[in-house]
Design brief:
This protein has five domains: 160 residues, Rossmann fold (3-Layer(aba) Sandwich); 179 residues, Topoisomerase I, domain 2 (Orthogonal Bundle); 126 residues, Topoisomerase I, domain 3, CATH 2.70.20.10; 116 residues, Topoisomerase I, domain 4 (Orthogonal Bundle), CATH 1.10.290.10; 102 residues, no CATH class. The chain is of the alpha+beta class. The relative contact order is 0.10. The protein binds one DNA strand of 8 nucleotides through helix 4, helix 6 and helix 15. This is DNA topoisomerase. Keywords: DNA-binding, Isomerase, Topoisomerase. One of its GO terms (molecular function) is DNA binding.
DNA sequence: GCAAGGTC
């Protein structure tokens, strides 16, 4: 019997060929650059095997010609528009290979990853192959790790494809397209009508069920920081200066068990009690062994967080580098949710490969010589890939690639070694009926910390105390502190939030962050060595706009995506049909769309009308700029660098020559847009271009690019 | 000119 096996990606087709053939296979090139066909006999099932693969999803979906153009229909119609499935141009050679191979085969065995997407990719493969051979027998190989015993078992005991899982994915694909396209077109068109700067067709104001909750997290944290008001608090500070074995006159600070109090009078009266007691009593001294746990096996999400926090590389960058190292054979597959190693995992061989490294070779040797300790087990297993680990020793890497490889290898070595061990002393003290404590730590065995410098565990000594002993505190004061501002959102924080809330997957989280940056919704800001994410005016405007609309389920919060996820699980469990899921969800989004469109118009115009009332005279500061060649307007205004965005489609570079104050009297309530058009009218009659300085007019256009003194100068003032 | 999910 001829069996055609199709895996999800090249790496898997190669591994299963090696395992099933015992290394005895022939390789054949295909018209696709990355894809090869492997052929061999598999006597265990009396078959001749051809193993090939696809490269992720084989087909894509889009609207037909009648709905594809932006002006071909009202955005609302997209919800009921048909959707076409087709093989994308760059996948034609893969399709062709499948057709050729299926024609010669009796059985098609699907070897895609054992997850929902894999089940759907399997269905895509089946659809193509059946076109070449209608009655081909279809089976599915099920495996949870690329380990010889499991792969043989999968080949010999294949199961059926799970249509329900494929259905769930198909529903999600359709929904994401319809919702994304409808809302994107609606948002973009409304904003373009109100803000001339957005008339540029390149600036799409996209909506997506993952990118908006992602943006929502950034805006939420920004608001928290912005609205923060520092609060004073009070606490009792108690310390004793006493010699320890290695230091002289070291201060031991005792922490107040109550932490701190926000009520000053309460703190004062408690402090009075303490003051009335001249001596502090040691009521308990506890000494016990303590551990600092070694890290968990590495998943993609953890790698991206660490990359951002410790290596200062953007999540997308970390993933790109890992992908490259994986293709060079240095790393295992870098997209995994699994944080537990299979019990049969061959640690010894992999550790052996690291023993030659100048930096950690000695440590790796100590692990192979009996120091090995089984890695901790996390709670996640995607049943397709092991945790990320080095598969070969890499000697000649430099720069960011070296940083990433070093981190992954040290992490793997740390996972295979022992927890760090220490000795902790806690001294509990009572004084004036208030309780205090101090702790000391002695690090005994650094163990995994030796090879994992990314974790810190520093011991601090504490003098000897005995239970019942009394002492007079060196300092006993009521001190005042204040709550400190929360920090802005870092990339690592955002990855954590997305992961926790189920926004995106290990492979897409980084992309969604990149998208909201590319769309100018979010700006990256370096502060010292840390990169923070702050929302642009446009980003804030969009999120607050949707929040003001007051839908009972916000389009900017993770809840809707969670519901989509829940529906998919129901479809997988066969408690809901794909048709029902589509119907229910589309009805829900249609309602939201209608409200959102109506209110969006309102919100956008509100943003504008608050500016100039009827009969008011306004002074607008104008920068008079000499028009030169293409580009954006830039120049100096009152000693400040000025940069203005592209103007009305026509790109100009202008040099600021002088500042004019223009008086305008407004017979009717006037929006800033009207004001803007009025000025453009003046502009067109001169050879010079007068540019209103971007005050409120351009609230939605990255005013961050303008220096702040300018914004102050250019307030639209009422007389 | 729209999405998110695979993957190269």
């Amino acid at each position: 019997m001829r069996v055609l096996c199709v895996a999800e990606k090249p790496s898997i087709s190669k591994s299963i060929s090696q395992i099933l053939s015992g290394g005895q296979f022939t390789t054949h090139a295909t018209r696709s650059q990355y894809i090869k066909n492997y052929e061999f006999d598999y006597p265990q099932t009396n078959s001749f095997y051809t193993v090939t693969c696809v490269s992720g999803h084989l087909t894509g979906c889009d609207f037909p010609e009648t709905h594809r153009k932006w002006n071909s229909c009202d955005a609302f119609e997209l919800f009921d528009a048909p959707v076409e499935i087709s093989v994308a141009g760059d996948k034609k050679s893969i399709e062709e290979n499948l057709l050729n191979q299926a024609r010669r085969a009796d059985m098609l065995m699907i070897w895609t990853d054992c997850d929902r997407e894999g089940e759907h990719i399997g269905l895509e493969i089946v659809r193509v192959c059946k076109r070449a051979k209608r009655n081909i027998v279809v089976k599915r190989a099920r495996f949870s790790a690329i380990i010889a015993q499991q792969i043989h078992h999968a080949a010999q005991r294949p199961v059926e494809l799970d249509r329900a899982q494929a259905d769930a994915v198909e529903a999600r694909i359709t929904l994401d397209l319809k919702v994304g396209a409808a809302f994107t077109r609606m948002q973009t068109q409304i904003l373009q009508n109100h803000f001339v700067q957005l008339a540029d067709t390149r600036s799409v104001v996209s909506y997506g069920p993952c990118q908006f909750p992602t943006l929502g997290f950034v805006v939420q944290k920004w608001n928290l920081v912005k609205s923060f008001v520092s609060e004073p608090f009070w606490y009792i500070f108690l310390s004793l200066t006493r010699n320890t074995s290695s230091t002289r006159g070291e201060d031991t600070v005792f922490t107040w068990k109550r932490g701190h109090l926000f009520a000053e009078d309460a703190a004062v009266s408690l402090y009075d009690f303490v003051l009335s007691d001249p001596l502090a009593r040691v009521i308990k001294v506890t000494k016990k062994g303590t551990k600092k746990w070694k890290p968990l096996p590495l998943t993609t999400v953890e790698l991206q967080k660490a990359g951002s926090r410790l290596l200062r590389l953007a999540p997308k960058k970390v993933l790109d580098i890992s992908e490259k190292l994986y293709q060079q054979g240095f790393l295992s597959y870098p997209r995994t949710e699994t944080d537990q190693f299979d019990p049969q995992f061959d640690f010894h061989t992999l550790l052996q490969k690291q023993t030659i490294d100048p930096a950690w070779g000695v440590f790796a040797t100590s692990l192979t010589d009996g120091g090995f300790s089984a890695p901790r087990k996390g709670k996640n297993n995607d049943k397709a890939h092991p945790p990320i680990h080095p598969t070969a020793h890499a000697a000649n890497l430099v720069g960011d690639e070296k940083k990433v490889y070093d981190f992954i290898t040290r992490r793997f070595l740390a996972c295979c070694s022992k927890d760090a061990e220490g000795w902790q002393t806690t001294v509990d003290v009572e004084c004036g009926e208030e309780f205090f404590y101090a702790t000391g730590l002695l690090v005994l065995e650094r163990n995994y910390l030796e090879v994992y410098p990314y974790d810190k565990w520093v011991g601090h000594e504490i003098p000897d105390f005995e239970e019942g002993e009394e002492f007079q505190p060196s300092v006993c004061e009521l001190r005042e502190g204040k709550t400190s501002k929360p920090s802005l959102l870092t990339e690592a924080d955002l990855v954590t939030l997305m992961d926790k809330n189920g926004i995106g997957t290990d492979a897409t989280i980084a992309q969604h962050i990149q998208t909201i940056i590319d769309r100018d919704y979010v700006i990256e800001k370096m502060e010292g060595n840390t990169k923070y994410l702050i929302p642009s005016k446009l980003g804030i405007g969009l999120i607050e706009g949707y929040d003001k609309i007051g839908l009972n389920k916000s389009l900017s919060k993770p809840q809707l995506r969670r519901e989509t996820e829940r529906s998919m699980v129901q479809v997988c469990e066969r408690t809901k049909s794909k048709a029902d899921m589509l119907e229910e969800t589309i009805v829900q989004y249609k309602e939201m769309f209608i409200i959102a469109r109506r209110e969006f118009e309102k919100v956008v115009s509100m943003e504008e009308t608050e500016k100039v009332g009827a009969g008011e005279v306004v002074v607008v500061m104008m920068a008079v700029m000499a028009v030169t060649e293409e580009g954006a307007a830039e120049g100096t205004l009152r000693g400040v660098e000025v940069e203005a965005p592209r103007h009305h489609g026509a790109e100009v570079v202008a040099h600021v020559e002088e500042v004019a104050e223009v008086l305008l009297w407004s017979p009717t309530p006037m929006t800033i847009s009207t004001l803007h058009r009025h000025q453009l009218h003046v502009v067109e009659r001169t050879k010079q271009r007068q540019v209103p300085i971007y005050a409120k007019l351009d609230l939605l256009i990255q005013p961050e690019k303008l220096p702040s003194p300018l914004q102050v100068d250019s307030q639209v003032c009422r007389i």
